[in-house]
Description:
By secondary structure, the chain is of the alpha+beta class. The protein is built from 20 helices and 22 strands.
Amino acid sequence: xxxxIQLLPDSVANQIAAGEVxxxxxxxxxxxxxxxxxxxxKHIDVAVVDAGRTxxxxxxxxxxxxxxxxxxxxxxHATSKIRKADDLFDxxxxxxxxxxxxxxxxxxQVELKTRQRGEDIGTHLSIAGGKVTGQEPCACPEGxxxxxxxxxxxxxxxxxxxxxxxxxxxxxxxxxxxxxLVYPDIVFRLHSNDTELLNLRACGLRQRIVxxxxxxxxxxxxxxxxxxxxxxxxxxxxxxxxxxxxNAHQYFFVNGRYMRHPYFAKAxxxxxxxxxxxxxxxxxxxxxxxxxxxxxxxxxxxxTEIKFENEQAVWQILNAAVKDAVGIFSNxxxxxxxxxxxxxxxVFDPDNGASMPKVDFDPQYNxxxxxxxxxxxxxxxxxxxxxxxxxxxxxxxSEGFHASRMGGTTSAFADFDAxxxxxxxxxxxxxxxxxxxxxxxxxxxxxTGAKQVLEEKAPSHYQYKGKYIMTAVKSGLMxxxxxxxxxxxxxxxxxxxxxxxxxxxxxxxxxESLQLTAQQQVTLGQVMPELQAMGFELTSLGGNTWSVNAMxxxxxxxxxxxLLHDMLDGVHATGDEALQKVNDQLALTMAxxxxxxxxxxxxxxxxxxxxxxxxxxxxxxxxxxxxKILCILKQQEIELMLGE
Length: 644
């Protein structure tokens, strides 16, 4: 029997290894930018064409490479970071495996121009499909200039499965943001098809977060800082009012490296227990400083999953730090006794006796005694008048109270008797009565009259706690969530209007400026035709700023800026470019914004309209995002609960 196991050729082995590290254009940018950071660069420029399909260029002003280093950098497992196995547990740099450059070169055409600091001549190296096609001296600036073209040109299957340009560009922005948020002291620039998406100056951490995600986030950030013998944590968390159902910006970084850690995310959210609605999330940007010996970053090819030696202890520290930040900067008024203006609080002295406070009152005062004539018409305050009037107001209602005031010197009880006996006066007749009319004729019993009124006046729907509409159906009692029902109604309405292109635009008197993040700017280009079909009219003011000149009819009272931000974030989160999916997301966002809120009191006609409109919808049971709208409490269950 012949042998069947054999060694793979280097070209095949390199392509397999590249598949673990280089999954899409964003992976190339991540590896090259991290190498530039490790090289000590202070300015890093990234330019992509066709979302990285055609070319990716990364230029830095780092220390550069010599001719020999430039050649060795493209060999597998060639690295300047590791010398012995123990170095794996004492890592202080981003890249260390020596797989990034050979993996990129195995599936693309790469050109490198690099020059070390202090050298006069640099090196120009060309590689295609993992093979060196040329190397020669060249004149170039200090640092490195990587040009990666035709990604996956020799792996057609991988190239075919790349997403659309908008999706891949969003992935590039995500990878880029994870790096720029760690190094605010480095200048970063990102261009796409000669359009500048990001231009980030060197600044502080908070300003870098604001520069990336917009000024809207600045007012919601609370600083977090704690130092322990186990680890240090610093950064920012959002205020409770910044909570969102989805698309909250949540970032963990460990020793300058981005990390995904659901367990630690629960520690942050646990600190907001009962402060935000269930299911919502707050943004956070938290940075861990911990000994490299206490973590293992070498458990995933992309190094985004990190194992902690003392995970539970770090969880407790993180949770306490976030709770402290939220507690200190909460909106509740607190007393600070550490300030200079300390309150003057007397200290009890046992040698200096304290006298019992005296209460001045009239033991002969009788609130049921009529006020003296001399005080009835005077404007001075008299306790007997206040007591008498207060008593009559509580006993007789507003009519009796007003009548007793108008009666002047007449006894309050006399006024009351006169009112109850049907006495009429001009002053009394002028006061509108709040007593119910005589609904029951004298010849009918009270029970008969009540039954008749209930039959004539009883509404067909009832509202419970400003949230639920309750109505009787054949099988029992139906309970409808008014907000969710209205979302379903409006969603299908907007959906049909979008499909028919019949949304009407309403010009705004004072156009507002819409500030977008780089990711929202990319998404806007994707959905601009749909927004225009909805009735939005946006005009570019340069950069990532737009003027909102018109909006769809029926959105009065809605914050259009927040609505557009939510729309763009929602479309970005779906990751689906199908036109129908985009329209559905936009229609859902508008429906959520325009739906009647919880707590709004509805008239019977309004409840009737909601219920009838709901049952004309294609799906009466669930909202477009899967929340239940109604339930029915069956008659048998009601009888069982009542023991019938």
